[in-house]
Amino acid sequence: MGYGDSDLLNGEVTQKTGDEGIDGVIKEDKLGLDKIYIQAKRWKKESKIGRPEIQKFVGALDGKRAKKGIFMTTAFFTKDAIDYANNTNSATVVLIDGERLTNLMIEYQAGVTVKEIYKIRKIDTDFFMEE
Fold first, then answer.
1. Domains of the chain: which residue ranges?
2. Could you give the C-alpha distances from 122 to 16, 125, 126, 127, in angstroms and in order?
């Protein structure tokens, strides 16, 4: 998506336990001067992530003195969670639900492969015109 440098050192995954609510960190620029902190939840698509989960994440961001965070999930967010994320003063929090995550994966070709390509043809009526 254009973050970091062209090498593979654009970010890191934190340890699975004791991560203090942060699952990963992305370097926002080539020098790593600004970072975006990530929380990722792989839940059933019908699950709802509510305000308490977002509050915990904002608290984790505050603990890192972070100003930017992304909370992504395979599920979806409740209205309260969205409202809280949009109105918090301590950090900018972007919420990515399962549908948006899927669209971003397709757009940036991350974790997806092309299965089939279809060509749709139409009749070229100019070909049949007499001169």
1. 11-128
2. 53, 9, 12, 12
Q: How confident is the model at residue 16 (pLDDT cuts 50, 70, 90)?
A: low
For the entire predicted model, the pTM comes to 0.78
Going by C-alpha positions, the residue among 26, 27, 22, 67 that lies closest to residue 41 is: 22
The rounded distance, in Å, linking the Cα atoms of 43 and 71 is 13
| Of 126, 45, 60, 47, nearest in space to 93 by CA | 60
Classify the C-alpha dihedral 8-40-20-66 as positive or negative. positive
Contact partners, residue 31, CB within 8 Å, separation at least 6? none
Q: Is the dihedral of CA 19, 37, 109, 101 positive or negative?
A: positive
DSSP-derived letter for residue 65 is T
Backbone angles phi, psi at 81, to 5 degrees: -65, -45
Q: What pLDDT, in 10s, does the model give residues 38-49?
A: 999 999 988 999
Give whole-number Cα distances, 72 to 41, 75, 100, in Å.
6, 9, 9
One-letter amino acid for residue 128 of the chain? F
Q: Which CATH class is domain 11-128?
A: alpha beta
